[in-house]
């Protein structure tokens, strides 16, 4: 089982790149699954706080507060989201042979996933000169800042345009072929 972990700041193209990677892997005959570390937070937003993803932007302030300030800091459950992810991978590995995680942000997330699994590829996306429309408070949050201090990536990709992203996904699949 191979796991790709994609990280980057807000709106750097992580989900888009994950989809391109998934499509390329399918072309090579693999059964890839795209996942999100933060999926439980989105479930809370949808199920208990009436957030409708079709009608609004990501509830970034809620995600940051729930994930970091409440679950990690207040409750002391540093690995809550990762443990949920690991359970999902264990279950879904009966159906998929490659997992693509598109929302890593913290050093601990990258390191924990690499410690847990043998075949992990880490990818950082950078999108320069792009207005991510974050508030000053959101921009200064640990989930936007910590990735700047992590440099142990297998690939660093500059998201300049869609064609280059697609090409990078193909190149990574070719060089990492299982």
Task: Describe what this molecule looks like in 3D.
The structure is a single chain. With 178 residues, the chain is α/β, with parallel strands linked by helices. It has helices at residues 14-27, 39-48, 60-74, 80-92, 107-116, 136-140, 142-145, 162-175; strands at residues 2-8, 32-35, 98-104, 120-126, 155-158. The chain is 48% helix and 16% strand. A five-stranded parallel beta sheet has the order 2-3-1-4-5, with helices on both faces.
Please outline what is shown here.
It contains 8 helices and 5 strands; from the N terminus they run βαβαααβαβααβα. It has helices at 14-27, 39-48, 60-74, 80-92, 107-116, 136-140, 142-145, 162-175; strands spanning 2-8, 32-35, 98-104, 120-126, 155-158. Helix 1 packs across helix 8.
What's the helix and strand layout?
Elements: E1 2-8, H1 14-27, E2 32-35, H2 39-48, H3 60-74, H4 80-92, E3 98-104, H5 107-116, E4 120-126, H6 136-140, H7 142-145, E5 155-158, H8 162-175
Parallel strand pairs: 1-3, 1-4, 2-3, 4-5
Keywords:
globular; 5-stranded parallel β-sheet; 178 residues; 5 strands; alpha/beta
Strand order of the biggest β-sheet:
2-3-1-4-5
Gap between N and C termini: 9 Å
Structural class estimated from helices and strands:
alpha/beta
- Identify the overall geometry: globular
Q: Give the topology string: H per helix, E per strand.
A: EHEHHHEHEHHEH
Q: What percent of the residues sit in helical stretches (DSSP H or I)?
A: 40-55%
Unreliable residue stretches: none
- Please give the number of β-strands: 5
Number of helices: 8
What's the overall average pLDDT, rounded?
A: 92
* Estimated share of beta-strand residues: 15-25%
Query: What is the subunit arrangement here?
Result: single chain
Report the C-alpha radius of gyration, rounded. Answer: 16 Å
Give the biggest beta sheet: 5 strands, parallel
